[in-house]
TrEMBL record:
It comes from Frigoriglobus tundricola. This is Response regulatory domain-containing protein. It comes from the Bacteria. The modification 4-aspartylphosphate is found at residue 56. Residues 7-122 form the Response regulatory domain. GO terms for biological process: phosphorelay signal transduction system. Keywords: Phosphoprotein. Gene3D superfamilies: 3.40.50.2300.
Length: 124
């Protein structure tokens, strides 16, 4: 997949979960690229100008407010940001909403909505 064909980026470090998301994206005619760090996400976003970004809020070392501020500067058209995380970490999910994510879901709801919503989350 070239940067130009990338519809979305996913910041996570779980290859098995990413394969589930990329499979749903592929079924919807979209492509998604996995990145493992905020720095990698920003580099990829500058090159690909994605329609959407999916973020695991439990990614190690993630400073979500700082990432979103830099992402806004990196992309002329700010991509939609969908975040997911553990339902028992309500404060972390609330912080993601306050940081400016467009959609914040517990991981179980993210999985439940994945096939039906992936196009809305990633396509421009």
């Amino acid at each position: 997949m070239t940067e130009a064909t990338c519809h979305g980026l996913m910041l996570c470090d779980d290859l098995i979960f990413f394969s589930r998301v990329s499979g749903a994206a592929r079924a919807a005619g979209l492509t998604v690229r996995m990145v493992r760090s905020a720095a990698d996400l920003l580099t990829a976003a500058r090159a690909a100008q994605p329609g959407g970004v999916i973020v695991d809020v439990h990614n190690p070392g993630l400073d979500l407010p700082a990432l979103l501020a830099v992402l806004k500067d990196a992309c002329p058209e700010m991509p939609r940001v969908t975040a997911y995380g553990s339902h028992v970490e309500a404060a972390v999910l609330r912080a993601a909403r306050q940081a400016g994510c467009d959609r914040v879901l517990p991981r179980s709801q993210f999985v439940e909505e994945l096939e039906g919503q992936i196009r809305e989350w990633l396509a421009k």
